[in-house]
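Section 5: illustrative case.
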């Protein structure tokens, strides 16, 4: 653990998305506040106070309330792409007989040309 080290000359964990309380009565207390910037750490030397669970009050109050309202747009776009692809291509081939016949005739024609091309090579 970092708290057991006593020979560090420089220490910087800025912007590493760390959470929790900085261990007390260790060498970690002697480094500047700038060494911990960009994290959700609490306790000295950082100015944020800790709750009983060791999580800063800012993270405890704001972290859980915002996560429920976030939308993962990657999954939304995957679902929309699937729905649009299915209803735009597969569903008409399944439900409209003339489209299905034309599609498979064209596919058979292309496969025939590829077979002739490969056979003459």
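Designed sequence:
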């Amino acid at each position: 653990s970092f708290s057991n080290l006593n020979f560090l000359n420089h220490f910087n964990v800025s912007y590493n998305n760390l959470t929790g309380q900085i261990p007390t009565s260790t060498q970690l207390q002697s480094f500047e506040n700038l060494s911990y910037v960009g994290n959700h750490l609490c306790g000295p030397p950082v100015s944020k106070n800790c709750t009983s669970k060791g999580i800063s009050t800012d993270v405890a109050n704001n972290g859980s309330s915002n996560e429920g309202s976030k939308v993962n747009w990657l999954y939304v776009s995957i679902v929309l792409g699937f729905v649009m692809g299915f209803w735009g291509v597969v569903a008409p081939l399944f439900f409209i007989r003339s489209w299905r016949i034309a599609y498979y005739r064209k596919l058979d024609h292309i496969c025939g040309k590829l077979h002739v091309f490969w056979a003459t090579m």
